[in-house]
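During the second year of the project, the team shifted from modelling isolated chains to modelling whole assemblies. The rationale, set out in the original proposal, was that interfaces cannot be judged from single-chain predictions alone. As a representative example for this report, we include one of the complexes processed in the last quarter. Its constituent sequences, exactly as entered into the pipeline, are reproduced here:
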Amino acid sequence: MKFEAVTIKDIAKALGLSTSTVSRALRDSYEISPETKKLVLEYAEKINYHPNPIALSLRERRSRSIGVIVAEIANSFFSQAIDGIESIAYKNGYNVIISQSRESFEREQINLNYLTSRSIDGLIISVASETKDFSNFKDLYDKGMPIVFFDRIVAGINTHKVIVDNYQGAYDATRHLLEKGFKQIAAIANNEVLSISKERIAGYKAALADHGIKENDTLIRYCAHGGLILPEVEEAVSGLLNMPVRPDAILALTDKITTGCLYILKSKKLTVPDDIGLIGFSNSDLTELIGPPLSIIKQPAFEMGEIATGLLLQLIESKRPVTEFETKMLAPQLVLRESSVNTKSKHVKIS
Amino acid sequence: MKFEAVTIKDIAKALGLSTSTVSRALRDSYEISPETKKLVLEYAEKINYHPNPIALSLRERRSRSIGVIVAEIANSFFSQAIDGIESIAYKNGYNVIISQSRESFEREQINLNYLTSRSIDGLIISVASETKDFSNFKDLYDKGMPIVFFDRIVAGINTHKVIVDNYQGAYDATRHLLEKGFKQIAAIANNEVLSISKERIAGYKAALADHGIKENDTLIRYCAHGGLILPEVEEAVSGLLNMPVRPDAILALTDKITTGCLYILKSKKLTVPDDIGLIGFSNSDLTELIGPPLSIIKQPAFEMGEIATGLLLQLIESKRPVTEFETKMLAPQLVLRESSVNTKSKHVKIS
DNA sequence: TTGTATGCGTTATCAG
DNA sequence: CTGATAACGCATACAA
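Output from the structure prediction step:
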């Protein structure tokens, strides 16, 4: 009843051959007699032999598995990205080991250590909102670990990064609100240090500037922990609503924050867009059903996962270090509920 | 620049010791001189030594990783369950390797083979809707692989299973529709062979019977592929709407089907509950924001993942075969939007 | 207390 | 064409 798997040795013994011969037969090696080969293959099939992947890993110094670290699995954006990651990994015979940072630097680093130390061949990561110190990523990368960053990237490490055009997404969203007649547009972003926050806030500011509206930093709120808990978003929203001059619209810059805003506005009995304007990043497949109609900015999460994995496997298998700074950019999709749907998607390589 | 990790051998060489001594020092073994131990530990710390988990796995015949197979990662129910799984695994030092069947039997079996053959210590699985042949699970289990089924379980294998009280959930939902005055209640379920379909349909029928309504099998539709693609749900919905006597309400028996119904009804410009009643299983964190108010049945997915993992780790670590048939049951939560929120949760052990 | 030898399952190298 | 041997990194039974 014990779980005893069959090994090459078992086959060798049963057939009166040496393990090396059996190995060669299974590997379809060049020098092997057809009869022996047939014999071995048939017997292996019969007793349902499968090579032990761990032994293979030890020998080949590769685990054929890639690590993934995201803030939260149960978040539409990330789960869609993981879907894409798994798809490509599966096609290429790789396993996907997932772990979540829950926006905690400490937990991220523990997972990082845990996954690395040679049990993964490469890493795909979207950094935690708390993370300010990227030296461990840098060290790991310098030691030769293939890494691809996605969504929340780390500047200063010359490896692949997969992101949407966050600047443009936020710009478009802000412009949409402006065109709808909103004037005092507030923005709620994830932690200030994150690449996505910086880029999105920059797009927001640019849109305001282009419409001749003076930016006002008191209208910008950050959620230090990525809005992981509702009270954090509530504080931001309440802070905005209690301002002397109340903003007339909110731009929510992540999935989590958009959802948070929806709940809080609902609890405060504020309807969108009559009482207050709202547009936000969201990847839920239900946002388009939310009433009153809510315009959203949707990221091509699945595709980002696919692309990131393709690049990572390329890095892993070519074994060559990335010598040039490459970034793939995809445009996020602005889904306007009141007007037409604007679907643009493109790849841009920037240097 | 190559990724050369430091090994015990490196430490041994540097310190002029044997690998076994170093190993013992690191393992905090019984007989080892304090000085040597200190020396080794400090040096290991200094050069950032981490044991190679693959070598450990080979030697200990355990990988400290568990496999998870679900239909789709990008599905709220499953991603929440995976969240729970990862939480417990993380706490216990286990890795989680995920893969998706996409409701395909073939892909499920490939993943199964892939994950097993000794690279995982245990398996948590929710079977694909296509799967009718469970012999591979049975064989695997008989060979000693610890397995825990969740949500979509397999009868006839005496191992742990984690499910909600599907019968009761569907019963409550149906009763809710009946109490709202709906008479002709249709049901759309996942593949007929699935445990969840059978249990939920049974609950649905029982509620009808208890209200003196004769069950009508033409009002029950199944999605052979779990409603993975929208057209499949559309066919079911359209079929129902085109019936001579059109049903006045729909009970959607999975997340995917509920979302599908919402989209299809919307495209047909039918509003809920004025044009047609609707209640469904859903785990999205946005369903409660959908307008008009939609009542849903929400499963404790996160907790199910946690419990399944706890049980699995117990199986793995105790190494004893499950001798008694155990099933943990949790009541699903009926979230009634129009009335009060009914939150009941309990553990029931059935035999 | 420490060192030597062995094995976990596999493949590559080198003899035969 | 096939077999013996070493090695991947680690832990342990056995020797010293």
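Residues 301-318 of chain A form the longest helix (18 residues). Residues 339-351 of chain A have pLDDT under 50 and may be disordered.
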